[in-house]
């Protein structure tokens, strides 16, 4: 079984796997339009993890596909069902994964977790600045929402430098432009 990750699964799968491949799926675009009050958020400060939405055939979402075999299958699916479906509100779907490798054969059928607009935690579209402002103040049991954003941006830079993810990098830019203001404000408060 292959499992495709496009958010925190790219750096923290949390399950045993046999192999992994960087690549993409077609037709979907990654968006920070899902809400979460558990992993990197709370009831007061909702986290913005990513989901993918069906756009058009030209769209691509880059990530990592993990191959799980034998006993790994049941254990990984049980873990991911809790992490992504029960706690995150995501549904499962099968997609065609295209490995980045030049000598790759046909696309691989992979399982993916997607939060749809019908999900009660779905937040929908917002400006990159508004999403960045919410990311700055959100944290939960898995860490801070800033880490989630920056690790995902780093993954894209280092493993998929040829790919564009305008939404992701616009939010990262907005976050970086806000951070100096927050640092200055905290420093000013300490001096007074």
Automatic annotation (TrEMBL):
TM region positions: none
Subcellular location: Cytoplasm, Cytosol; Golgi apparatus, trans-Golgi network
Root EC class: lyase
Catalytic activity: glutathione = L-cysteinylglycine + 5-oxo-L-proline
Enzyme Commission code: 4.3.2.7
UniProt GO MF annotations: gamma-glutamylcyclotransferase activity; glutathione specific gamma-glutamylcyclotransferase activity; transferase activity
Cited function: Catalyzes the cleavage of glutathione into 5-oxo-L-proline and a Cys-Gly dipeptide. Acts specifically on glutathione, but not on other gamma-glutamyl peptides. Glutathione depletion is an important factor for apoptosis initiation and execution. Acts as a pro-apoptotic component of the unfolded protein response pathway by mediating the pro-apoptotic effects of the ATF4-ATF3-DDIT3/CHOP cascade.
Protein name: Gamma-glutamylcyclotransferase
Major localization class: cytoplasm
InterPro entries the record matches: ChaC (IPR006840), GGCT-like (IPR013024), GGCT-like_sf (IPR036568)
Presence of keyword Nucleotide-binding: no
């Amino acid at each position: 079984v292959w499992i495709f990750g496009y958010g925190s699964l790219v750096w923290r799968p949390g399950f045993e796997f046999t192999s992994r491949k960087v690549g993409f799926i077609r037709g979907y675009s990654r968006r920070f339009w899902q809400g979460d009050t558990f992993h990197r958020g709370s009831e007061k400060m909702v986290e913005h993890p990513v989901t993918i939405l069906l756009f058009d055939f030209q769209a691509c979402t880059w990530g990592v596909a993990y191959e799980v075999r034998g006993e790994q299958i049941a254990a990984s699916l049980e873990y991911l069902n809790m992490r992504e479906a029960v706690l995150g509100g995501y549904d499962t779907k099968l997609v065609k994964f295209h490995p980045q490798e030049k000598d790759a054969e046909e696309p691989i059928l992979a399982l993916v977790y997607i939060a749809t607009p019908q999900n009660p935690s779905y937040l929908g579209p917002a400006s990159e600045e508004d999403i960045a402002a919410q990311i700055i103040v959100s944290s939960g049991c898995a860490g801070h929402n800033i880490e989630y954003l920056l690790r995902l941006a780093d993954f894209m830079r280092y493993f998929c430098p040829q790919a564009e993810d305008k939404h992701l990098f616009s939010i990262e830019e907005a976050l970086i432009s806000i951070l100096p203001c927050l640092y200055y404000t905290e420093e000013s408060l300490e001096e007074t």
